[in-house]
Amino acid sequence: MKRIEYNGEEEWRIITDKNKISFPVISAIYMGYKIDICHEQKLKELCEKQKLSLYKQYLNTIAIY
């Protein structure tokens, strides 16, 4: 589920077990920071093939004491 802070974002979340996906209007894929490394690699390959931008979320690890 999305947190309320992200409700303004226009996004698609694709969940599929098929090997073929059509990309008629997708221009970028955004990966969450907890993505499994093998899924990340598959997305990199897919984005290169489909000429899509790929982004990955990282957490800010700065601690304030």
Termini gap: 31 Å
Number of strands: 2
**Beta-strand percent range:** 5-15%
Low-confidence stretches: none
Taking Cα atoms only, what radius of gyration do you get, to the nearest Å? 14 Å
User: Portion of residues in helices?
Assistant: 10-25%
SS-based structural class? alpha+beta
State the shape.
Answer: globular
Q: List the secondary-structure elements in sequence, H or E.
A: EHE
**Helix segment tally:** 1
What is the residue-mean pLDDT, rounded to a whole number? 78
Major β-sheet annotation: 2 strands, parallel
Strand order of the largest sheet: 1-2
Description of the molecule:
The chain has 65 residues and is of the alpha+beta class. 22% of the residues lie in helices and 12% in strands. The chain has 1 helix and 2 strands. It has one helix at 37-50; strands spanning 28-31, 53-56. β1 (28-31), α1 and β2 (53-56) form a beta-alpha-beta unit.
Give the topology, please.
Layout: E1 28-31, H1 37-50, E2 53-56
Parallel strand pairs: 1-2
Keywords:
65 residues, alpha+beta, two-stranded parallel sheet, 1 helix
In brief:
By secondary structure, the protein is of the alpha+beta class.
